[in-house]
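I have been asked to look over a protein record a colleague put together. Thanks in advance; the entry in question is below.
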Amino acid sequence: MVDSFGANRHDSTEFGAIINYCKILFNHLYENSSIEFVRRQANGTAHELTKAAILSTSFHILVTPPHCIKHILINDML
């Protein structure tokens, strides 16, 4: 999906037509954005960190990884 979205070649299939329409919408609605592939593990890390941030009522600067995502980060490094 990401490769097709980023490609500059013409695809005359139905999938290509959908991707082309998505490109048009994306370029119109999101001028300063990009589409990139993100490993599922990275999404899991972001999701867990977001859940933890919602529970916090004050601003924090984290020097060490919070306990809620420490195991995910360790798995990513292996």
Remarks:
- The radius of gyration is 18 Å.
- The mean pLDDT is 79.
- The chain has two domains: 1-37, 40-77.
- Helices lie at 2-6, 14-29, 40-55, 67-77.
